[in-house]
Amino acid sequence: EFERELIQAREAMRQLANELQNELGLKDRLLTILGHDLRGPVGSAAQLIDLVVGELAKGETIDEALDLVQGSMHATYNLIENLMGWMQGKNKNSYEEPEPVILHDLLQTVVTWLESQARAKSISVEVQCQPTLGIRTNRRATETIVRNLTSNALKYSRVGGLVVLAGQESAAGWSIEVRDNGVGVPPEKLAKLFGETKVDSSPGTGHESGSGLGLMFCSELARNLGGTLGAVNNPTGGSTFCLRVPRG
Question: Residue 225, CB half-sphere, CA atoms under 13 Å: how many?
Answer without folding.
Answer: 31
